[in-house]
Amino acid sequence: MMRNKKKSSSIERFIRLMDDFAPHHHGPDHVWIFYLREKRKWVRVHVQKYKSVYYLTTSDSVQVTFPNSGYDEPAGLRSRLKIWTQELSQWKKSLLRDPIAAQATLYKNLPLSLRWGVMQRRNVKTLLPNWLPIEMELTAKEKHLLLSLLDKPDPDPQPTMTLDRFLDYCRIAYQANATKLSGFRSGLSGREYYQKYADGRDGGLLKIAVDSPEEFERWYDSKERQGCHPWEIYRGGNSTHIDLAVVRSERGGWSIYLDAFSSTRLVETCRIVLALNKASLPFKFGHKESYKLRLLAEDWVGVVPEGSDLSYAWHHFPKEWNVADAIHISWFFEENPEKRRALRIQLRQLVHWLPEQITNG
Fold first, then answer.
1. Running DSSP on this structure, what letter comes out for residue 75?
2. Rounded Cα gap, residues 46 and 359, in angstroms
3. What percent of the chain has pLDDT over 90?
4. What whole-number distance in Å separates Cα of residue 114 and Cα of residue 221?
5. Tens digit of pLDDT for each residue in 119-139?
6. Pairing relation of β-strands 53-58 and 41-50?
7. What is the pLDDT of residues 141-199, one digit of tens each?
8. What average pLDDT does the chain have?
9. What is the pLDDT of residue 68?
10. What's the rounded Cα separation, in Å, for the pair 18 and 246?
11. How confident is the model over 250-308, as pLDDT tens digits?
12. pLDDT of res. 121
């Protein structure tokens, strides 16, 4: 299956044994998931087969493609594959003896650090008081006002929109976070702030007449802004930016839509909410319910296996949990080393663990 059989024998033996197990089906792909023990350490091995090629990844960042003509197997990986093959053989024997007992034993012994779950923010904050200190950056008065604003119905659309009107919103939005913006200078115009702090790909927005509703509508309907980011007023990544978008209403007219999902921008966004409200500038606010639950510490925080990326982990949780933020469970033990043993017992009950998909047939 590979040009150099001697170098490929360990991965080949593992794949051959793995093929004895019935795969899970994800669309056209076949997937196998195993939890294997290496002495006192556990590893999650995920193998995905696509068009006769196997892609193996592990919880500790090993990546192997098989077959791969240019593959040169490191000695360290070869020894690990030997252990994994032995463990996989034992798992197969256990399943043949008693599949229910085998799975029950595995779940009992599986380290919490390799599992997916959710935990209420209030409990997370009790154990990690310095994690995402939203409550330390917003006063009780600000929080109370924010919660009341989040409960308000959306305002009616505005009959017309101009560039000047949009930039007025931007000016207030930037002034709301004067201490957070690098090189901030007071007294600038909305255009000057926008040019300094927005994404920059405005799609020709700044070239239109500032006071013409007709010019704004023509630009809005044109192809100029396709592929551009005219509404990204605070630069960031795919989920770490702040948008202030103009949206045409189905009922006619225009709405300003403030949208930012990431909790790393939550406080800045909340300050924009307060500033726009103070300036009597009507707007719609995205993720209202999520923000409300986060401010009340009543939302669910994702617990993500070690080795998994936290940045976009919320994508991996069922929508009904409304997960916005994620942590590694090891953080609890690092923050509370004197409670390590008790915490391990408590967290097994306190975290709502998600179902694990394990290859068992």
1. H
2. 10
3. 83
4. 49
5. 999 999 999 999 998 888 999
6. antiparallel
7. 999 999 999 999 999 999 999 999 999 999 999 999 999 999 999 999 999 999 999 99
8. 92
9. 80
10. 53
11. 889 999 999 999 999 999 999 999 999 999 999 999 999 999 999 999 999 999 998 88
12. 96
Q: What is the mean pLDDT of residues 108-129?
A: 94
Q: Is 360 helix (H, G, I), strand (E, B) or coil?
A: coil
How far is the CA of 183 from the CAs of 54, 168, 171, 180, 236, in angstroms? 50, 20, 15, 9, 17
170, 276 contact by CB (below 8 A): no
DSSP string, 204-272: TGGGS-TT-HHHHHHHHHSSTTTT--TTEEE--SSSSSEEEEEEE-TTSSEEEEEE---GGGHHHHHHH
Q: Which residues have CB under 8 Å from 297's CB, separation 6+?
A: 120, 121, 122, 125, 135
Which tokens sit at 322? 């409304």
- Preceding peptide of 213 cis, ω within 30°: no
User: How many Å apart are CA 314 and CA 23, to the nearest integer?
Assistant: 26
pTM summary value: 0.85
Q: Look up residue 139 and give its two tokens.
A: 């006063």
- Look up residue 208 and give its two tokens: 């239109």
CA distance 205 to 213: 13
Residue where the block lists tokens 């020894």? 79
The CA-atom distances, in angstroms, between 150 and each of 97, 233, 288, 289, 309 are 57, 21, 6, 8, 31
* Both tokens assigned to 149: 């604003």
Contacts with 75 (C-beta within 8 Å, 6 or more apart), sequence order: none
Tokens of 102: 């085998």
Report, in this order, helix, strand and coil percent for the chain, each rounded to 5. Answer: 45, 20, 40
What 8-state DSSP symbol labels residue 317? S
